[in-house]
Automatic annotation (TrEMBL):
Gene3D superfamilies noted in UniProt: Biosynthetic peptidoglycan transglycosylase-like, DD-peptidase/beta-lactamase superfamily
NCBIfam families, per database record: PBP_1a_fam (TIGR02074)
Residue spans crossing the bilayer: 5-29
Name this protein carries in UniProt: Penicillin-binding protein 2A
Pfam families: Transgly, Transpeptidase
């Protein structure tokens, strides 16, 4: 018996000794794994333009550090009840909760419950990565125990509440209180505090802005937990669960005009360079972006004005993107009229592009494929292709029309006929090259009739191909990222691919320029050369209503797109006007920002400029007279008012009975001489204008020869 007691004593002694040594090891290791500087939470990254000018500190306005004494006790209790019920009892690691979690995981055959304490979450978020490994969990435990030794429970809870993410760009409970309720944390009610406590587990899922029902359900669960843990009575829990939490979303920021752009920076950093939002927030990076602040501000301010958005109410939405032609850098971006951080960015939402699709789906590919040229004649006739019968918006059909005029007047029938000649697969091949892969296989592609649609960014960047001699490359928001020590950790490089020849790109530019000067995009004013295309999709439920309205345009230096419409179109929510409104808004944004004023397009080297179109005018009157030459020969001279355009050719015909003969042609003149005229001839003559571009002859004007003998 004594030996057993002695052996038990020795085992107990060594157990205590090893536990003590292990504890000392953990404490000792804490000095190596805890970096005090990481406890400073206001290390923000800096956004700068390409010239190095500071634009903003990322999310610096979205985190305000608060003292735990400013947080109502019931708000603190709400977080403790859901995140760490034994917070005041454990020393960094809750063995009881951890064992319960492991037990439930084993029963479920997978991970169903977390065992991390508030201190462990703080340790992971401040000091560690999201790597899932035993070593990382060990470090987390070491850091948590040492944090508990260094700081009071109140201080740890304060750091946690200041650090945790609440969605929509709000970091820390003070920023969350201002975002969702427009009040200080000290003014939060019990139901508001419980709602906020439910968000950090999954900010997107439990956002009261995006998912009101799920947010309410989780709030009620937390109130029940508070009652279970005796923080509040069950009666108070039930009464509070019955209350409706009224949000007062505070959307205004110090620089609300930057909201969309900043979110796009965060998205691209994560998608392209594997830098999370949290890393950018506390990493002290310098991020160079191609933004032009004057355009960004002008766009934001004009988007707030209802007169630009012709909807059934003042809730009509819009989106605007502007890219640098040369680099593809995003110069300005507006994701919505009331955009909030991490909200719905309408620049990424696919919409039906309407007639803005014609240049990239039909006309540029048909020129590049050498099927047609700008002044080739297309069939503009009402006809059916199986079950598909496209119609022109104005119900007018020219029969034959040049591609130039088909684009200017946005003729649907001509576009569909051209696609039928080109072939759908060939069109899709070119669309793929400009970053718009589609799955559709019908001729409705010509008019933007797509099953999924396109985003404003996609179509703007596709049009950019016309400005880069036919080469396509991806757009970008981030030009360069430097770490705190100046090391370049990300640097954008262009990867260009040829889509069109420089000649095709330039021909499209010239034609689209005339769309603005004399076609469907004439609305508004712009003091410079601008090319572009309009597009409107109808909402057929209501006569005259529109679902989507577009303008996609470019100058010598920038290319962009404006979309207008409702997030959901129905009989109470639709546009009352079409593409003239986004066209005017686009022009006004550039004008307000004083951008590309009096700037003209430059013809690329090695490219032939496309002539402006020849417009045939009716010949109102032809006069005929005889004259005598010095040799006594009789000459018949035909005269008419020639067009100012000296490129117009005139054809002169002689008609004898049923026989018509072309006598000759003149260009840039209003007369034609017929020598050796026969005064006894009964022939008549006709002068007809001729378009050398389209090879089309206009209506002629006939005249009889004067009778010198006075015979009738």
């Amino acid at each position: 018996m004594k030996k057993k007691l002695l052996l038990s004593g020795i085992v107990l002694f060594f157990t205590v000794l090893f536990a003590f040594l292990g504890y000392l090891f953990i404490i000792f290791m804490g000095d190596y794994v805890i970096d005090e500087e990481k406890l400073v939470m206001d290390t923000a990254s800096t956004l700068v333009d390409t010239e190095g000018n500071e634009i903003t500190k990322l999310f610096i306005e979205n985190r305000e550090l608060i003292d735990i004494n400013d947080v109502p006790e019931y708000v603190q209790q709400a977080f403790i009840s859901v995140e760490d019920q034994r917070f005041y009892e454990h020393h960094g690691i809750d063995i009881q909760a951890l064992g319960r979690a492991i037990y439930k995981d084993i029963l479920a055959g997978g991970k169903v419950e977390g065992g991390s304490t508030i201190t462990q979450q703080l340790a992971k978020n401040l000091f560690l990565t999201n790597e899932k490994s035993f070593l990382r969990k060990t470090k987390e435990a070491i850091i948590a125990i040492n944090l508990e030794n260094r700081y009071s429970k109140s201080k740890l809870l304060e750091m946690y509440l200041n650090q945790v993410y609440f969605g929509h760009g709000a970091y820390g409970i003070q920023a969350a209180a201002k975002l969702y309720f427009n009040k200080d944390v000290s003014q939060l009610t019990l139901e508001e505090g419980a709602l906020l406590a439910g968000i950090p587990k999954a900010p997107s899922t439990y956002s009261p802005i995006e998912n009101k029902d799920k947010s309410r359900e989780r709030r009620n669960v937390i109130l029940s937990l508070m009652a279970d843990q005796k923080y509040i009575s069950y009666d108070e829990a039930v009464r509070t669960q019955g209350k409706t939490v009224k949000l007062q979303v505070h959307q205004k920021q110090e620089s609300p005009w930057l909201s969309t752009y900043i979110d796009m920076v965060f998205d691209e950093a994560e998608e392209k360079y594997a830098l999370s939002n949290e890393e950018l927030l506390r990493g002290g990076y310098t991020i160079t972006v191609p933004i032009q602040q004057n355009i960004q501000k002008a766009a934001y301010e004009l988007f707030q004005k209802n007169e630009y958005f012709p909807g059934t109410d003042d809730k009509a939405q819009g989106a605007f993107i502007l890219l640098d032609n040369r680099t593809g850098g995003v110069i300005a971006a507006i994701g919505g009229r009331d955009y909030v951080p991490k909200g719905l960015n309408r620049l990424h939402v696919k919409r039906q592009p309407g007639s803005t699709f014609k240049p990239i789906a039909v006309y540029a590919p048909s020129i590049e494929a050498k099927l047609f040229q700008p002044y080739s004649l297309l069939k503009d006739e009402k006809q059916s292709y199986g079950d598909y019968s496209p119609e022109n918006n104005d119900k007018q059909y020219a029969g034959d029309i040049s591609m130039f005029d088909a684009i200017i007047h946005s003729k649907n029938a001509a576009a569909v006929w051209t696609l039928s000649e080109l072939g759908i697969e060939k069109s899709k091949e070119y669309l793929q090259k400009v970053g718009i892969p589609i799955k559709d296989d019908g001729l409705a592609i010509a008019l933007g009739g797509l099953s999924d649609g396109v985003t404003p960014i996609q179509i703007a960047n596709a049009y950019r191909t016309f400005t880069t001699n036919g080469k396509y490359s991806e757009h970008h928001v981030i030009q360069k990222i430097k770490s705190q020590d100046g090391e370049v950790i990300a640097d954008h490089t262009d990867k260009e691919e040829k889509v069109y020849s420089p000649q095709t790109a330039w021909d499209m530019t010239r034609m689209l320029q005339h769309v603005v000067s004399e076609g469907t995009a004439k609305s508004g004013e712009f003091n410079g050369e601008l090319a572009g295309k309009t597009g409107t999709t109808s909402y057929t439920v209501v006569e005259g209503a529109a679902k989507d309205a577009w303008f996609v345009g470019f100058t010598e230096n920038v290319v962009g797109a404006v979309w207008m419409g409702y997030d959901k179109t129905d009989e109470q929510h639709y546009l009352t006007k079409g593409s003239s409104y986004p066209t005017k808004l686009f022009k006004d944004i550039l004008t307000t920002a004083k951008w590309d004023q009096e700037v003209a397009f430059k013809v690329p080297k090695g490219v032939e400029d496309l002539e402006s179109p020849i417009r045939l005018e009716e010949i109102k009157q032809v006069q005929a007279k005889y004259t005598f030459t010095p040799l006594g020969l009789l000459t018949l001279t035909l005269e008419w008012d020639a067009a100012k355009d000296e490129r117009v050719e005139y054809r002169i015909y002689e008609q004898n009975g049923n026989k018509q003969e072309l006598l000759g042609t003149v260009k840039g003149k209003g007369y034609y001489e017929i020598p050796f005229a026969n005064v006894f001839s009964t022939a008549t003559y006709k002068v007809a204008p001729y378009n050398v571009q389209t090879k089309v002859e206009g209506d002629g004007k006939e005249i009889n020869t004067p009778n010198l003998l006075g015979k009738k």
